[in-house]
Hints:
Layout: H1 67-89, H2 195-206, H3 213-220, H4 225-228, H5 231-239, H6 243-250, H7 253-262, H8 266-278, H9 285-294, H10 297-311, H11 315-322, H12 325-335, H13 347-360, H14 369-378, H15 381-395, H16 399-406, H17 409-437, H18 444-453, H19 459-470, H20 474-481, H21 484-494
Amino acid sequence: MSYPGYPPQPGAYPPQAGAYPPQPGAYPPQAGGYPPQPGAYPPQPGAYPPQPGAYPPQPGAYPSMPPAAVFTFYVICFFVTQANQISASMGGFNPSMFPQPGGYGAPSPNQQPYGMYPQPGGGMPQGPGMGYPAPGLNPSMPEYPKAPSPNPSMPAYPQGPSVNPSMPGFGGVPVVPVSQLGFRGTISDFPGADPLKDVEVLRKAMKGFGTDEQAIIDLLGSRSNKQRVPLLVTFKTAYGKDLIKDLKSELSGNFEKVVLAMMKTPAQFDASELKDAIKGAGTDEACLIEILSSRTNAEIQEINRIYKAEHKKSLEEAISGDTSGHFRRLLIALAQGNRDERETVDISLAKQDAQALYAAGENKLGTDESKFNAILCARSKPHLRAVFHEYQQMCGRDIEKSICREMSGDLESGMLAVVKCIKNTPAYFAERLHKAMKGAGTKDRTLIRIMVSRSEIDMLDIRQEYVKNYGKSLYTAITGDTSGDYRKLLLKLCGGND
């Protein structure tokens, strides 16, 4: 005779394949466990190798029971007999200790309903058959010893913001959009790219009479920046010639500008754009604002390093000599690349900063531009999103509208760019692209800079914002505003028609 939930008695059929392994406390398995059965699938070529420390693959089926297992089987039967005697002394088998057929029953009165968050401050939920023994069971039965904590000296992590807005601790701060996290570019590493074969394609495209522009578009438009830039050295090694000089001699116009921009590292390209924006009679303030307000600390610091190395003066010196007033202070502050990058948000400090911005602008005669500069250029982006939220709640006006009311000219444009990049960087670039192609003529320099610099960062998000805000796809806008090989390469960077 057998009992529900217990192993079969001696003489019964051996356990079927797939049954549960022996419980802890049984005799340990014999050394040199059973080898895998033949016929398993071999590892596929090119797959990832097994990670170190992973569990070994399980055998396909249980082999016939060896003598050692027979001994273990009889030991288990001995303990089953003892368990039956204990059960009889306790008044028989208690079926409520195990889940009944048909699923779990209703939760106990003190138990949290199934599928719900546990209440804050509460302990682990007590399910049926868990916890202390019910009244009526044998109180003299010894308890199993408590297992030691795996690492009692480890400190607890500080409590982070709840993922469930109904849970305590939610400060009402807008959540960072998913679009701002992770890779959202249109250009990525080309699998299996061979630099020697790539430069051979470029060489053939430029050799002889005429130029095969389509071959250049297809190759450069399908390689990431870190795959394109090394081609300069590979080309010189293979052919003893300068790839940039060859490209300049074979290409022209805006198509040439896009190709040359793609052959620079992001920091090299930004540094050259900043240099061109400053040199000469006029200053391209919009370019300065766009680059310095949208790049990360690390990117700005690398731009500073390259600018100093290539132009023998610091970026700060160049900005100081070409701008003035509060606009110059704003650009120099941004050019430090020293923004706080902590992800945590102190709501009380966010409220203080919102009040400080209100006191520096809307709530006083005149404007304290330095206060805006100090907060907008130094605080972290998550913190400033909370500040903008608190500002709107406090005075009923968006921070952008307050800036437009309090400032003008380049300073207004610079402050607005900082705010827009903090709120939604892809939307800011979608607006810049729209203005570059709106009306008569095209601001090709802006169009090229954004399409090249954002193609591996957030071009997919920029496309989404463009079609949402302007009623047509970025692909369609570029198609209608450009032509020829220039258009083909820009569309390659755009990546698709939404």
